C-alpha cells in the first residue's frame, strides 16, 4: 500500500479532519520549543484508545514510524525525527475517566492536561502526589509520564513516575498492554506492584517503547496548610546547601532557587502590575478574610525591590495537614536558611506561583523575545556544589564565544525528593522565533517584544554549549529526565544495562518503528 492509500485509510478510520496533511500545519508539528526536523507525513488525532491502537497498527504495518506527541511543550526533540513518520497527537484523548476517592486513584486519558486534572480535583480535597509541571496549561499527563516530569509536589514526592500506579500502553503492533494491578483479571488499577514493575518500564521512555493511552495516578489528601518563605543568599553554595538540607528533612512540597541572572530575567519579564492581577488568585487561595487581606497587602507592599540584583534567591512552599506541622516545617526551613547565610525576604514569588500554578507559557522566550532553552541534570546533594562550580568554569571557558553571540545563561536549582538536586542552566540568545513560539506565546507578549533576526550561527553555538555541558554532567554521573534525542542515555549507561534495554526495545518494537532514536535507541 502506498503512503497515499495509508493516509486515505487513516482518514476513513478517524475522519478527514483528524488526519492532518496541510503543509503549514505539518511544518508546525515538525518543531518543538527548541528544534526543527523534517515534517511528518501526517498527524493523526485518535479520539479513544481503540482508535489509537488501530491506527498505530495500520501505520507500522506499512513500516512507517510513529512519533507520539502530547502537549508538544518539550525541547529535547522527543517527538521530532527525520525519518518517514506519522505523528500521533494526543489532543483528543483528554478525558478524566475515573476519580476513585474510596480507593484513592484517578484514571485519565494520556492527552489530559495538568490544568484540567487540577481543576477536576480542586474541590475534592485530593491531589496526585506530583501534580503538574510549570508548563501544565498545555503539557499533558502522558507527556509528563514519558518525560518523567517534575515540579509541583516534587520536593517531597519526587518525579512524575513516582505518582503513577499503572498505564495502558499501545505498542508498535497496535496491541494494548496494561501495567499495574489493572492487568490482573477481575482487578482494578488500585496498586502498582505485582511482579516486575512494568509501569516503571514505560516511565521516562520519551515514547520509545509505546504510546500511553491511559494512566492511573495515586491520589493523596491535598494538604491544606500552606506556608511560603523566601530568602536572599549571597552565593550559590549557601543556596545549594539550604536546598539540600530542606530536601533531606523532606520539609517542602516545592523548594527552588534562581541565580541572580535568572532572577533578573523573571523580574524584567513580569511586571508588578501583573503581580497585582495575580493577587486575585493569591487572595482566593487563602482561607480566612484576615489572612486574605494580609497576603494581598504583603505582596503589594513587597513589590520587587527586595530582590537584590546580586542575590541568589531561594523559595520554599510548605504543604501540611495541620497548622502545627506547617509551622514546624516553616520554622525549620528558617533555621536551615539562617545557618547557610540566607536573609529572609518577602515571599511573593512562591505565593504567586502556587496561587496561579498553570500560567501561559510565555517563559519559552526571553523578556525581549530572545530564544530560550534549558538543559538540566540531577546529582546527589553531595556533588551539587562541585558540579555547579564545574558548570561555571565551563561558561567561563566559553565566555568569548558567548559574548560574541550575546548568549547568556542563568541557573534554576531545585530538589527532587530527598536525595537529588536538579541543576538547570538556561540559555537565552537573540535569534528569530519559530512558528512554534508564535502559536504558544500569548499575543500581548508577542506584540510587546522587539524580536530578533535569525542567527543560525548563534543557535549552532548554543547546541554546542548544551552538548559541552552534557560532557560536564557526565563527569559527575548525572541522570536526566526528558531524554528524547538530546540526553545521552544509551551512551552513558553501562553496557550490560544497555543490552537489557535494547533487548526489551527489540521485543516490544521489533521493527524499530516506535519513536525511533528516542532514548538513543533504534
Ligand atoms: C515554559 C515551560 C515550562 C516548563 N516547565 C517544566 C516543569 O516545570 N517541569 C518539567 O519537568 N518540565 C517542564 N517543561 C518541559 C515540558 O513541558 C514537560 O517536560 C512536559 O511534561 C512535556 O509534556 P508534553 O505533554 O508537552 O509532552 P511532549 O512535548 O508532547 O512530549 C514529550 C515526550 O513524551 C513523548 N510523549 C508524549 N505523549 C506521549 C504518550 N501519550 N505516550 C508516549 N509518549 C508520549 C513524546 O514523544 C516526547 O518524547 C517546561 C517547558 C516549558 C516550555
Structure report:
It is a single chain. This protein is α+β, with helices and mostly antiparallel strands and 522 residues long. It is 39% helix and 19% strand. The chain contains 20 helices and 19 strands. The chain has helices spanning 3-14, 23-29, 49-61, 114-121, 141-147, 154-157, 198-202, 236-248, 260-269, 272-285, 289-302, 323-339, 348-355, 381-397, 399-404, 435-440, 443-448, 456-475, 489-492, 495-508, and strands at 19-20, 42-44, 65-69, 85-89, 96-100, 105-109, 126-127, 164-170, 176-178, 211-218, 220-221, 225-233, 254-258, 312-320, 343-345, 371-374, 377-380, 408-416, 420-429. The strands form four sheets. Strands 12, 13, 14, 15, 16, 17, 18 and 19 form an eight-stranded antiparallel sheet that branches. It has a five-stranded antiparallel sheet with strand order 5-6-10-8-9. A four-stranded mixed sheet has the order 1-2-4-3, with helices on both faces. Helix 14 (381-397) runs antiparallel to helix 18 (456-475). The radius of gyration is 23 Å and the shape is globular. 48% of the residues are buried. The mean pLDDT is 93. Bound molecules: flavin-adenine dinucleotide. Flavin-adenine dinucleotide (FAD) binds next to strand 3, helix 5 and strand 10.
Write a concise keyword list for the protein shown above.
19 strands, 39% helix, 522 residues, binds flavin-adenine dinucleotide, alpha+beta, 5-stranded antiparallel sheet, globular, 20 helices
Amino acid at each position: 500500500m502506498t503512503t497515499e492509500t495509508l493516509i486515505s485509510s487513516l482518514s476513513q478510520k478517524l475522519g478527514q479532519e483528524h488526519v492532518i496533511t496541510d503543509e503549514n500545519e505539518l511544518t508546525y508539528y515538525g518543531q518543538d520549543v527548541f528544534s526543527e526536523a523534517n515534517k511528518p507525513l501526517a498527524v493523526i488525532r485518535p479520539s479513544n484508545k481503540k482508535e489509537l491502537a488501530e491506527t498505530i497498527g495500520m501505520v507500522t504495518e506499512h513500516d512507517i514510524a510513529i512519533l507520539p506527541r502530547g502537549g508538544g511543550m518539550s525541547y529535547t526533540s522527543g517527538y521530532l525525527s527525520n525519518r518517514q513518520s506519522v505523528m500521533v497527537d494526543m489532543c483528543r484523548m483528554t478525558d478524566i475517566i475515573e476519580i476513585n476517592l474510596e480507593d484513592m486513584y484517578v484514571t485519565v486519558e494520556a492527552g489530559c492536561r495538568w490544568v484540567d486534572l487540577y481543576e477536576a480535583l480542586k474541590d475534592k480535597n485530593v491531589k496526585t502526589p506530583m501534580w503538574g509541571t510549570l508548563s501544565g496549561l498545555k503539557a499533558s499527563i502522558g507527556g509528563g509520564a514519558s518525560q518523567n516530569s517534575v515540579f509541583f509536589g516534587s520536593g517531597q514526592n519526587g518525579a512524575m513516575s513516582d505518582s503513577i500506579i499503572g498505564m495502558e500502553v499501545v505498542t508498535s503492533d497496535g496491541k494494548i498492554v496494561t501495567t499495574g494491578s489493572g492487568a490482573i483479571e477481575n482487578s482494578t488499577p488500585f496498586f502498582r506492584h505485582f511482579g516486575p514493575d512494568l509501569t516503571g518500564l514505560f516511565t521516562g521512555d520519551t515514547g520509545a517503547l509505546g504510546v500511553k493511552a491511559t494512566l492511573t495516578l495515586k491520589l493523596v489528601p491535598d494538604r491544606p496548610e500552606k506556608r511560603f518563605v523566601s530568602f536572599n543568599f549571597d552565593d550559590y553554595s549557601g543556596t545549594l546547601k539550604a536546598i539540600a538540607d530542606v530536601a533531606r528533612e523532606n520539609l517542602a512540597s516545592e523548594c527552588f532557587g534562581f541565580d541572580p541572572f535568572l532572577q533578573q530575567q523573571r523580574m524584567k519579564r513580569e511586571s508588578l502590575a501583573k503581580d497585582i492581577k495575580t493577587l486575585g488568585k493569591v487572595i482566593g487561595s487563602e482561607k480566612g478574610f484576615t489572612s486574605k487581606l494580609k497576603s494581598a497587602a504583603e505582596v503589594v507592599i513587597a513589590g520587587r525591590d527586595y530582590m537584590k540584583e546580586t542575590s541568589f534567591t531561594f523559595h520554599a512552599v510548605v504543604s501540611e495537614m495541620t497548622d502545627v506541622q506547617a509551622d514546624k516545617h516553616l520554622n525549620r526551613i528558617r533555621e536551615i536558611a539562617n545557618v547557610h547565610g540566607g536573609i529572609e525576604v518577602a515571599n511573593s514569588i512562591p505565593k504567586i506561583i502556587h496561587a496561579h500554578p498553570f500560567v501561559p507559557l510565555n517563559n519559552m522566550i526571553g523578556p525581549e523575545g530572545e530564544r530560550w532553552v534549558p538543559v538540566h541534570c540531577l546529582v546527589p546533594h553531595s556533588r551539587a556544589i562541585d558540579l555547579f562550580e564545574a558548570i561555571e568554569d565551563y561558561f567561563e571557558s566559553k565566555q568569548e564565544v558567548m559574548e560574541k553571540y550575546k548568549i547568556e545563561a542563568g541557573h534554576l536549582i531545585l530538589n527532587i525528593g530527598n536525595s537529588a538536586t536538579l541543576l538547570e542552566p538556561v540559555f537565552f540568545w537573540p535569534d528569530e522565533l519559530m512558528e512554534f513560539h508564535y502559536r504558544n506565546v500569548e499575543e500581548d507578549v508577542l506584540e510587546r517584544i522587539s524580536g530578533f533576526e535569525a542567527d543560525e550561527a548563534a543557535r549552532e553555538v548554543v547546541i554546542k554549549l548544551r552538548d559541552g555541558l552534557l560532557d560536564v554532567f557526565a563527569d559527575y554521573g548525572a541522570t536526566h529526565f526528558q531524554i528524547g534525542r538530546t540526553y545521552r542515555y544509551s551512551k552513558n549507561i553501562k553496557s550490560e544495562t544497555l543490552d537489557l534495554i535494547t533487548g526489551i526495545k527489540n521485543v516490544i518494537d521489533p521493527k524499530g518503528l516506535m519513536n525511533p532514536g528516542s532514548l538513543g535507541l533504534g
